[in-house]
Amino acid sequence: MHPLVVGRALEVASWPWLADAAHTSYYPGVQMDLRERPSGVPMRHPWETVRAQFFARLVAEQLGRGTALDALDVGAGDGFMAATLLPVLPRGSSIACYDPEYTEDHLQALGAEAPVGLCFERICPEREFDLIVLLDVLEHVPDDRGLLRDLVERCLRPGGLVVVSVPAHRSLFTRHDVMLGHHRRYSSRELLGVIEEVRLRPRQSGSLFGSLLVPRAVAKAFELARGIVSRPVDGPLDERVSTGASAWSHGAVFTRALCGALELDARMSRLAARYTVPTTGLSLWALCEHAQAAGAER
Q1: SS3 label, residue 8
Q2: Model's pTM, two decimal places?
Q3: Which of 72, 106, 143, 224 lies at 20 to 30 Å from 95 by C-alpha?
Q4: Residue 157 carries which DSSP code?
């Protein structure tokens, strides 16, 4: 199995799961990168909340309420995305949260509070899945094509789907990317090139969080004004980092308001993708299927 190196070592305390996570607009509970996770129970960043809901709806639209399926969440962190996705999958479905940087303490703490149908794995399960989710994972590995190819060849069931998201715009590579161990940000052409090279075909693709481009551009401008040129750093990363996602503490009212604004952004992005209207945003995404399976359906 291709080594997935995402630098996600962080002590995890016991985190309660929210049974109705997919149906709430704000919840502090249980996927940030484990390296971002603070030592106490965090307030969930609005970006992460809305992102999880966006991809849960995207998958639900594609799958409907058919037969139970088996899903794999790669680089699952603390399992927040999986907890949001599971309730919208067909009854009886299951999700394996895979992250090679889980420690025994991670596995014990996360597994103790996980709902039925959710499990955590440090070694990638040796079976095929109906759905593979890689949200903000490919930018963490030197060989993004190798990782994706290996997962498709060894873990994707014929006719299965893959959901991928990555950070967009090379020009917006900042210290935030460096702290999180990002090797790159992507253009739309680059992401689609990676996908097609491993024999996947996008069913739908688009951008997300266009409203966050200006704040990130301002942050980049401040870096350049101070003579800071951010580049990927080879070597070990800090075990714990402090970013906007891990240090969110702006109160429930403001958090709900920002969630609402980002939710509007996400719904507009979804509408644009449905009607193939070009957009731009801080993230890129694609929902893909086997090129062979897509050809056989025609």
Answers
A1: coil
A2: 0.84
A3: 143
A4: E
In sequence order, which ranges of 73-187 are alpha helices (DSSP H)? 80-85, 104-113, 144-155, 175-179
Q: Which residue has the tokens 């689609």?
A: 192
Tell how strand 200-208 and strand 283-290 pair up: antiparallel
- Residue 216 or 236, more confident: 216
Angle at Cα 250 formed by Cα 248 and Cα 253, nearest 5°?
130
Predicted pLDDT of residue 64: 78
Strand order across the beta sheet in which 283-290 lies? 118-121, 94-98, 70-74, 129-135, 156-167, 283-290, 200-208
Q: Where are the extended beta strands (E) located within the chain?
A: 70-74, 94-98, 118-121, 129-135, 156-167, 200-208, 283-290
Tally Cβ neighbours within 10 Å of residue 161: 23
Domains and CATH numbers, the chain: 21-170+184-211+240-291 (3.40.50.150)
Q: Copy the structure tokens of residue 147.
A: 């990782």
Q: What three-state secondary structure class fits 167?
A: strand
Cα(176)–Cα(187) distance, rounded to whole angstroms? 18
